């Protein structure tokens, strides 16, 4: 029997009548992968100690407001994904959800897609464990996803019209072949727990390459085994910024998966998987990206992904799996408008936007935009500030000298350091309170790295 991997918290009426949640025809108690709770106290008592449930969906409960329950469950276990479901959106509720650290704010469409995805995964696990034919989970997954499709169609009919998603539906978690893998392993569900952070923006020029490079260096310096992936599949230049001359490229890893075993950090330098060398390889990389990411997430603590300016299917693949997505806006009004367009696209495609962490780049005195300006434009969303690092950023990264930049006490690096300490799980505890010491002390990066499963190294301070 497939072990439960998702907990659903809802009041008794919702559990007895799944159609109220959009799950018409579903027999929830019969889903072996789904554990049900109507009592907030029972849910908290069980989930505080359980290690099998890796994701929680909070719809409602008999005795506690759902947002309070979701926040409590997240506080009890920060490593577990907790999603808040709200079928009637409101700006105030979104703000409360964002402030509590809950991972995702799901609309009805996003919830249906997530349910179908997890049901498909459970079917794939069962078939992989029993050695049955691969076609089985595909049929079960299609049947599961038909729930989301039917509900979406009904909602569209009620609204008289529905926008067309620019991405192919990734909620169905399509299975693709991964070179060198067996058919059974191709549908196996990942068991890794890496913290995946894509760095995205609505338009080009926001600073994604620089931010993702420095973020990966900071993560590695804090003792996390870190991988930096350049998912700007056409014009990625992260190896140049890091000063790495002959990196392992994504297409090479796909052609020879055994080479992934040699992909590991070295001292303060994170592991690097570079973008394809040839532009025409980008499409093939996107097709194999889900399996590649699932494999890599078993091998590292933190994965930082640089992305391209043009939104495409690879963005959906990354956002589906992300723990946090760093959404950059720069000082141009056009960058803010592009951010809003990208968020609209996510809503139309059922991509939860609550995991997004918005950051205003190149902040400085007398800059055109402030974090308050951007927050107001984004209907009250929290917006972090990343300081303007000046010419040193372009010159030192352009010369492939990232450690010189880190050691220069650059404003960009110190502000991004604070942001990473807030984002990465348990990073503040690892670094210690003195990490926020006097500005003159500069960055405090670890010279070593922590092995998986071992103790984290102590800070250099």
Helix content: 40-55%
Whole-number total of structural domains: 2
DSSP summary, beta strand count = 13
Structural class: alpha/beta
Low-confidence stretches: 132-192, 432-442, 446-461
Helical run tally: 18
Q: What separation lies between the terminal Cα atoms? A: 50 Å
Structure summarized in a few sentences:
The chain is α/β, with parallel strands linked by helices and 461 residues long.
Give a verbal description of the structure.
The strands form two sheets. The chain has an eight-stranded parallel beta sheet, with helices on both faces. It has a five-stranded parallel beta sheet with strand order 2-1-3-4-5, sandwiched between helices. The protein has 461 residues and is of the alpha/beta class. It is 42% helix and 14% strand. Strand 11, helix 13 and strand 12 (356-363) form a beta-alpha-beta unit. The longest helix is centred in the first third of the chain and has 25 residues, at 135-159. The radius of gyration is 22 Å and the shape is globular. Helix 2 (40-49) packs parallel to helix 3 and helix 8 (208-221) crosses helix 17. The protein folds into two domains: 6-159, Response regulator (Rossmann fold, 3-Layer(aba) Sandwich), CATH 3.40.50.2300; 195-441, P-loop containing nucleotide triphosphate hydrolases (Rossmann fold), CATH 3.40.50. This is Chromosome partitioning protein ParA.
């Amino acid at each position: 029997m497939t072990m439960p991997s998702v907990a659903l918290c809802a009041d008794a009426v919702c559990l007895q009548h799944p159609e109220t949640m959009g799950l018409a025809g579903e027999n929830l108690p019969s889903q072996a992968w789904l554990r049900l709770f109507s009592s907030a106290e029972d849910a908290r008592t069980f989930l505080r100690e359980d290690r099998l449930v890796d994701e929680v969906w909070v719809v409602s409960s008999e005795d506690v407001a759902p947002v309070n329950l979701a926040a409590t469950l997240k506080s009890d276990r920060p490593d577990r994904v907790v999603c808040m479901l709200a079928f009637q959106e409101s700006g105030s509720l979104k703000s409360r959800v964002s402030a509590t650290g809950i991972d995702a704010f799901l609309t009805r469409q996003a919830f249906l897609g997530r349910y179908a995805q997890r049901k498909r995964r459970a079917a794939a696990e069962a078939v992989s464990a029993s050695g049955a034919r691969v076609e089985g989970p595909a049929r079960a997954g299609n049947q599961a996803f038909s729930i989301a499709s039917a509900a979406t169609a009904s909602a569209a009919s009620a609204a008289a019209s529905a926008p067309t998603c620019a991405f192919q539906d990734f909620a169905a978690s399509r299975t693709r072949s991964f070179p060198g893998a067996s058919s059974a392993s191709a549908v196996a569900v990942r068991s890794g727990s890496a913290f995946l952070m894509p760095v995205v923006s609505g338009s080009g020029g926001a600073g994604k390459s620089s931010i993702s490079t420095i973020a990966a260096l900071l993560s590695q310096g804090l003792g996390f085994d870190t991988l930096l992936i350049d998912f700007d599949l056409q014009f990625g230049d992260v190896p140049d910024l890091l000063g790495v001359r002959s990196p392992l490229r994504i297409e090479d890893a796909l052609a020879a998966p055994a080479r992934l075993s040699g992909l590991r950090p070295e001292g303060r330098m994170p592991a690097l998987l570079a973008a394809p060398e040839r532009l025409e390889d980008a499409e093939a990389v996107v097709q194999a990206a889900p399996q590649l990411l699932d494999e890599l997430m078993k091998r590292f603590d933190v994965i930082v992904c640089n992305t391209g300016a043009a939104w495409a299917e690879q963005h959906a693949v990354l956002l589906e799996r992300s723990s946090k997505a760093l959404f950059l806006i720069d000082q141009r009004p056009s960058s803010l408008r592009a951010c809003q367009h990208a968020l609209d696209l996510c809503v139309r495609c059922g991509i939860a936007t609550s995991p997004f962490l918005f950051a205003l780049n190149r902040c400085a005195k007398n800059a055109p935009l402030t974090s308050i300006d951007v927050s107001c434009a984004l209907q009250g969303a929290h917006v972090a500030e990343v300081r303007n690092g000046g010419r040193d950023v372009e010159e030192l990264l352009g010369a492939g000298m990232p450690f010189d930049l880190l050691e220069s006490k650059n404003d960009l690096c110190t502000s991004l350091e604070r942001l990473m300490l807030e984002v990465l799980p348990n990073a503040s505890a690892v670094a210690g309170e003195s990490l926020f010491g006097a500005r003159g002390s500069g960055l405090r990066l670890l010279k070593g790295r922590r092995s998986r499963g071992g103790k984290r190294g102590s800070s250099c301070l």
